[in-house]
Every structure is written in C-alpha cells, then in structure tokens.
Design a protein that fits this description.
The complex is a heterodimer of chains A (267) and B (276).
Chain A: H1 4-9, E1 12-23, E2 26-38, E3 43-47, H2 54-62, E4 69-74, E5 77-78, E6 86-89, H3 101-105, H4 107-111, H5 116-129, H6 145-158, E7 163-167, H7 175-191, E8 195-200, H8 203-209, E9 212-216, E10 223-228, H9 241-245, H10 250-261
Parallel strand pairs in A: 3-8, 3-9, 6-7, 7-8
Antiparallel strand pairs in A: 1-2, 1-4, 4-5, 9-10
Helix pairs in contact in A: 5-6, 6-7, 8-10
Chain B: H1 2-8, H2 14-50, H3 56-59, H4 62-73, H5 82-113, H6 115-130, H7 137-171, H8 175-183, H9 188-199, H10 201-226, H11 231-240, H12 244-273
Helix pairs in contact in B: 4-12, 5-6, 5-7, 5-10, 5-11, 6-7, 7-10, 8-9, 10-11, 10-12, 11-12
The chains are: A alpha/beta (267), B mainly alpha (276).
Chain lengths: 267, 276
C-alpha cells in the first residue's frame, strides 16, 4: 500500500472497489476489484464497451453512488456524498427548458447555496467565452445541440470544481460538432488545470483528449490495461485533440486500444 | 445554428407571404365552420319546434330563452335572481377545482416523497377515482349540510383524478434531470422545488383542464339534490314545474360558464407554454 504522503498527492483514488446492483431477480456485478489512481491535473479517459460500468464508475467518484466494497477517495478523503470539488457532465445537456440559458448555467451554484451575484458573473463570463454571450436570456430550445452542450459545460464549471467528470458528453452531437467541441473542452479543461476523467466508447476521442487511457473489461468491469498516451511535440506541450488526430502516433494507439477492446460486431 | 438565425430576422419573400396568406385563410375557414355549426344548431333548435316536428314543450326554443332570462333576472321572495344562481354555481366550481389542485399537488408531492406511501395507497386511489362520486350526493347532504355538501362534491369528484395525473407527471420527469441536480448535491426538497415542480407545469395545466370540467359536474349534481340556490337547483326546479324555458336557460348559462372556463384555461396554457 502506498505511504500516506503519496496518497495525499492523488486527486482521485479508487481502492479495490466492487459494485453490485441489487434487483429482485438477483445481484448484478457491475464493477469488480477496480483500483485507479489519478494525479492532480491529469486527463484520464476510461474506455470500454456499453454496459461495462463506465458510467457507474463516475457515479461512484461523484458520490451519488456508494461502492459495495472498497474505498473511493477524493483528495485523500473517503467520498460520502456529492462534493463541490467534483463537477459532472452528463451524456446530454439536460438543460431545464423552463429556465433561460443564464439561469441554467447557475443551477449548480443555486443548489449549493453559493453567492448568486458572483455565480451569475462567473456564468456570464464563461458563456461569453464560449461564444454564447448574446444568448443569456434565450431559452434552451432556441439553441443548437453544440451550443446547448457548451451551456452544460458552463453549468459544470460555474461551481468551480477541481475535478470534472465527463460521461460521453459528446455522444448526442453530430460528428463535426463533436470533434470541434471535444477540442474546445479539452483546451478549456487543460488551461484551467482541472483534473478530468472522460468516459467514452470512442477510441479516437480517448486517444486524442487524454494523457492516459484505462481500458475496462466487459461486465463485470475490471481494469484490463492502462496506456500512457504521449505525442512527440516540438514545444513539449500537449497537442490539441484535433492536432493529435493527425499526429503520427495516433494510429498506433488507436489500433492497440481497438485490439484491447475486442470489439465484435454482433449479428 | 439555423434555428437561431430564423429567429433573428425573417426576410419576407413572396413565397413566404403566400404561405402566410394560405395559413391565415386556413385559420379563417376553421373559425367560420365553427360559427356555422353553432348557427345551424340554433336555427334547427328554433325551427323544428316551431314547425312542430318536435314537441316545443320538450325542447323550448332559443328565442324564448332571452325573455325567460330577463324574467329570471328579477329576484322575487320565492326565487333568487338568476345571477345569484350563476354566482353560486361558479363559486362552488372555482372552490372545488382550486381545492382539488392544491390538495392534488400536496398529496402527489407526498406520494413522490414517500414511495412506500404511494405503494400502499395506490389501489385505494385508483378505486376512489373509479367510484361514481355522485352516488355520495345524498350522504354528503346528510354529513355536510346544504352548502358544504356541494363544495364537498365539487372537490370529491375532481381530487382523485388530479392526484393521479399530477403524480404521474412527477414520475414522468426525466430521471437524468434529477441525477443532474444530485451531482450538485441537491437535497430532496431542492429536487422537488427546482426540478419536479417546475418540470410538471404542463401536467398541472392538463390536470386543471380536466378537473375544472369535473368540478362543474359535481356542483350541478350536488345542487340537484341539496340546494336552494345554483344553476343545478334552477334546472331541477324548472323541470319539476315543467317549464322547459327555465331548464334551457339554465343549461345555456352552464354552456357559457364552461366556455369561459375553457377560454381562461387556454389563455393560461398559452402563457405557460410560451416559456417552453
């Protein structure tokens, strides 16, 4: 076991986590023996096939689910419930159609009882930076899918979390918007030095965005392998996701992960 | 993006203007047909008894209603003015459906809050809703007296369907919206106030539509039995002394009351839906 000094350095740690869902038909084992350590500022992607428990993993870190066995730690402390340090971006924007864009963006701050004047200022700043400055008083239905997902990002970052959990946040978008927005989001999260955990079944997305990719096996989800993603770059900085897709290393990582996932098309 | 642009400014091309004109004409045709149906109905109602094809004693006719109405406006020692009757019916109806809405929201929220409570009460609610509440009119009269029994019937007839409708609206809220609130650490009360209730506004309007009509039914049936005032009483009285003019005038006013309620709720619905 790691000494407490190294444990304190970790932003997120899962120690031998098991999770079983209970139903009248019996127990379903979703995750088995998961141990993951994530350092501050790291961008980690978790990939696996549908139903391997990827989203469950994020629910555990965010504190809306408790593990059946094992421990989940954020900043060295066991997670007991939703924390202000953790922001969660879901698969769709889930904007509230009865709230304006600005009101949607400050939802988290409102629930957490934060200073609303500051929250509105911060949300306005974020939305303006994401090119939505003139839509603050619009309703969600007046915005396109990509714009709505950017509002969702502003809503997540408005509460100033250290850790951002991304649960296939681009899955519902068309492919161009998806690439462009993934690029924007990765740049924003890196610039703000957030620790990010991205769950996806899109190998390209994982390789282009993350520094480390963790592959989960099929149900019950176990950590199958981990891959550090490195791009040789002249200035030493990490390339943006769009640039990474053109890097010579990209295809190598892609193929390795493809084989790891053992994708079988059924039927 | 195109969605936003079309909102920003619609340049009126000739094709667009032609489309608008077609739309407007279509709208006009619907309105004109609605009016025509009403006019044909009134003409048939006037002509068939006059031509003695149907017995005028049984149906009265529209032209006889206005003189009857004017006559009924006067209050005599034996009979209150028709305005008093109308007011009594409207008041009882409004009290009934307002009570049903308030109780419906409170009880549906309680059922949402305590799932076990819902599981326990579910069969009772379904049976209570299916019961013909009008069977209780005589009992309510004995329990609650002349006036309160009408309010009680107005409430009883609409409250159960309101509870069931609002509860199913609460259940229909996207669980991911609730999950989203939970990721910010929302309490159950916050989820109710910020997600479930505002998300259920369309359901509340739909419930209001149903129970406003039902409450009116409850009031009129209640008045048949127990009242000495109200349109239900007036209709009952008119039929007992075999004056169809009084009965038909009462029914016509009921139709007008229903129409006004319908318009008010449509207006409310439009105001609410503009936010969505």
């Amino acid at each position: 076991m790691a000494a407490s000094s190294t444990a304190a350095l970790l932003k997120v740690e899962l120690r031998d986590v098991n999770l079983r869902y209970f139903g009248l038909e019996g127990e379903t084992e979703a995750l088995r023996g998961i141990s993951i350590a994530i350092e501050p500022g790291e961008f980690v992607a978790i990939i696996g096939q549908s139903g391997c428990g990827k989203s469950t993993l994020l629910s555990l870190i965010s504190g809306i689910l408790m593990p059946t066995d094992g421990a989940v730690l954020v900043d060295g402390r066991p997670v007991t419930g939703p924390s202000r340090k953790v922001g969660y971006m879901l698969q769709q924007d889930y904007l509230f159609e009865w709230r304006t864009i600005l009101e949607n963006a400050v939802l988290g701050a409102e629930i957490q009882g934060a200073d609303m004047v500051k929250a509105r200022e911060r949300a306005t700043g974020l939305l303006t930076r994401y090119g939505l400055g003139q839509f603050l008083q619009h309703l969600p239905r007046q915005l396109s899918g990509g714009m709505r997902q950017r509002v969702a990002l502003a809503r997540t970052l408005c509460t100033e979390p250290d850790i951002v959990l991304l649960d296939e946040p681009f899955a519902a978008l068309d492919s161009q918007t998806r690439l462009a927005l993934a690029d924007e989001v990765a740049v924003i999260l890196r610039r703000e030095r957030k620790t990010a955990i991205l769950v996806t079944h899109d190998i390209g997305e994982a390789v282009s965005m993350a520094e480390r990719v963790i592959v989960l096996s099929r149900r019950p989800g176990r950590v199958k392998s981990e891959h550090a993603i490195c791009f040789a770059n002249s200035d030493g900085a990490r390339p943006t996701p769009l640039a990474a897709r053109n890097a010579p290393e990209f295809n190598g990582y892609f193929n390795t992960l493809w084989q790891e996932l053992e994708v079988h098309v059924e039927g | 993006m195109s969605k936003v642009e079309s909102l920003a400014g619609a340049s009126a091309s000739p094709q667009y203007l032609a489309w608008l004109a077609r739309e407007r004409r279509g709208h006009l045709v619907v309105r004109a047909t609605q009016l025509a149906i009403l006019v044909v109905f009134l003409i048939l109602w006037e002509m068939l008894p006059k031509a003695l094809i149907v017995n005028p004693v049984l149906t009265s006719y529209p032209s006889a209603l206005w003189p009857t109405f004017v006559e009924l406006l006067k209050s005599t020692p034996q009979q209150a003015s028709i305005l008093t009757h109308t007011w009594a019916t409207v008041l009882a109806t409004v009290l009934g459906f307002t009570g049903a809405m308030v109780l419906g929201v409170v009880i549906a929220a309680a059922l949402w809050w305590w799932n076990t409570l819902y599981k326990v009460l579910d069969p009772y609610l379904v049976v209570a809703n299916a019961m013909p509440k009008t069977a209780f009119v005589p009992i309510f009269y004995i329990w609650l007296g002349a006036t309160m029994s009408i309010y009680g019937m107005s409430l009883a007839i609409s409250v159960f369907i309101t509870i069931l409708m609002i509860y199913s609206g609460f259940q229909g809220i996207d669980p991911n919206k609730i999950k989203l609130a939970q990721t910010f650490g929302a309490t159950k009360g916050q989820i109710l106030r910020k997600v479930v209730l505002p998300g259920s506004v369309p359901t509340l309007v739909a419930a209001l539509k149903v129970n406003a009509g039902l409450s009116l039914v409850g009031v009129v049936v209640g008045e048949f039995q127990s009242a000495n005032v109200g349109l239900g009483y007036l209709i009952q009285y008119g039929s007992q002394i075999f004056k169809m003019n009084i009965v038909m005038t009462g029914i016509t006013i009921l139709a007008i009351v229903s129409s006004v309620m319908y318009l008010a709720i449509s207006w409310l619905e439009a105001a609410v839906m503009r936010r969505r």
